[in-house]
Amino acid sequence: MSISGTSEKRGAQGARAHALAVLRIRGWALAAALLPAAVAVVLLAGGATGRLTGGDWDRARWVVAALAVVVLLLAGTVAAVIARAGPAVSPTVALTESSAPDLHRMVRDLATRLDVPVPSAIALTPDCDSWLEDRSHPAQSISGSRLPAVHALRARRVTTAPVLVIGSPFLWWMRVAELRALLAPVVAGTGPSAHPDIAASRRFVRGLDAAVAVASRPGAGPVGRVGYGFIGRVARLLLRSCRGHAAEMERGVAAAASERAQAVDYGLRVVAQEQVGLAYAGWDRLLTRVALPAWRMGRWPARLDAGVVSALTELSRRDRLADGFTSRLGERPACDLLEEPGAVDEATSLLAARLFHGGPAERSPDWSPVDWQQYPEEVVDRKWRTDAARLHRVLDRLGPRRAGDPGGPTLARVMNHLTADSSEALAAGITAEVAREDAAAPPPVPRGGAAGEDLWDTEAIPLFPLQPPRTGRDLLADHVTAMVCCAAVDTAGATPGLDWLDGPTLLVRGERGADLGGPVVSLVEEGDAEPLREWLATVGVRPEKPVRLV
User: Would you tell me the crossing angle of helices 222-260 and 55-84 to the nearest 10 degrees?
Assistant: First the structure.
């Protein structure tokens, strides 16, 4: 046997051993629940045969029998919640065979070469990751079955392979051969997943996790809170008991799948893994710098996956570490495996907005798509004018205009205020205005009801709150920059633009203008307007002219 085959066998055996350890914990819990009943049976049998008689034995029989009934009722309730609680299901965009026949054919070919079961379905997620997801839980299995419920569940548990979930940015950035190499170890994971012991232990752990989620939900009455509290404590105790074995089982499954996939495109997989890191960097910049401003304005870019190609191409051009990666773009992209890449891209883009920002699941007049060609005018320009209008509203509340200030919303008025007074009051006013608008905005739209319907029920993924918080002066600098850009567009012929890595940008004579950061910071923090005046003179901006606000 080869070294690879030995490693695969060792990984699979280790995974099965830990799966059995998880099942033993389940067995111990069942034994503990049945122990009082077993003792009660012994006492009742002893009384019936005349061996255990007398006052003390009679009292013991009644006490133990009552305890057994209570324990069995509690254990049955906990078991029912664990069995019925649907595990979390990742929100995805389904890819039927008719919508992606070539992709399904490639996955089937991979499964055949790896000698493992074919994934039961393929779905896309707006993230840079790929995995197998078991969706054969009873909560997701009964619907549409013509068999009686129990028999349908048993059949699904035995025959249903996991769903292959693929990160949508991979389909647009990677080439077909790279995607096949990247998916090989993922598809290989369907082999260990089919083992009965591993499948049973996974169902048990997912059921415990779902039971904890159900027990933690608000809204139950006083009696319900007590009952769910008990169920949650039992489920957490069992989870803590089997967590280590479950983690080791998954490591063993991953090791076995990786070893099995060694024979399929191993050399190309090294290159594909490099593309994963690059794709993640470009996807993160695209979401935080480009998509987020649009989402906050009620618009969602309808071609995020196509945009990531532009972002990564720009990143490759700027970063010498990524030099040479764009030479791959002449090969066939993996999105060619889809029948309608544009429709799939739009669906995953809407899902990304729903997950990362909390937007509605359907388009509406207040939540509409925007094409990349429209982005500069409908997002960038509108954002600048919205910020500029907010800046002037705060200036109006701080007091009357100064002598010599030109009429209307002008950049000169902002510069005069910041050179004559401290920026603290203006920064505080901007911060308060932004907070007031955020508080008045509608909350994120709920995304799912019962457990098992959706992985994120009420809150968006905490992607953007992980960024450093903005200070008052940072917000003020952003608003002053927006005002400068509005003045440049209205008085100097500049245009709003889109930088794939940095987001909204100002184009002067068709090219990206000089950095505004330094001059604006000097004005906001030091009250020194000279650097900004030099920048304005270079571009030809007339700060005394009013600008158009929203």
Answer: 60
H or E element in which residue 104 lies:
helix 101-114
19, 198 Cβ separation under 8 angstroms: yes
Integer Cα distance of 155 and 157 in angstroms: 6
Helical H segments across 286-340, by residue range: 292-296, 304-318
Q: Which two tokens stand for residue 174?
A: 């990677």
pLDDT at residue 323, as a whole number: 53
Listing DSSP states for 413-430 in one string gives HHHHHHHHS-SHHHHHHH
Residue pointed to by tokens 């794709």? 279
Q: Which among 183, 181, 208, 193 has a CA at the least distance from the CA of 252?
A: 193
Q: Are 257 and 192 in contact (CB under 8 A)?
A: yes
* C-beta of residue 370 within 8 angstroms of C-beta of residue 378: yes
Residue type, 214: V
DSSP-derived 3-state class of residue 470: coil
Beta strands in 25-161 (DSSP E): 93-95, 121-125, 131-133
Q: What is the DSSP letter of 510?
A: T
E strand or H helix at 498, and its extent? strand 495-499
- pTM assigned to the model: 0.83
Structure confidence by residue, pLDDT tens digits, 349-382: 999 998 888 888 888 888 999 999 999 999 999 9
Q: Could you tell me how far CA 156 lies from the centroid of its own chain?
A: 28
Chain Cα centroid distance, residue 1: 42
Report the distance separating Cα 370 and Cα 374, nearest Å.
6
96-127: pLDDT as tens digits = 999 999 999 999 999 999 999 999 999 999 99
Q: How remote is the C-alpha of 148 from its chain's centroid?
A: 36
- DSSP-assigned letters across all residues of 337-397: GSS-HHHHHHHHHHHHHHHHH---SS-BTTBEEE-TTTHIIIIIHHHHHHHHHHHHHHHHH
Question: Is-contact 380 294, C-beta < 8 A?
Answer: no
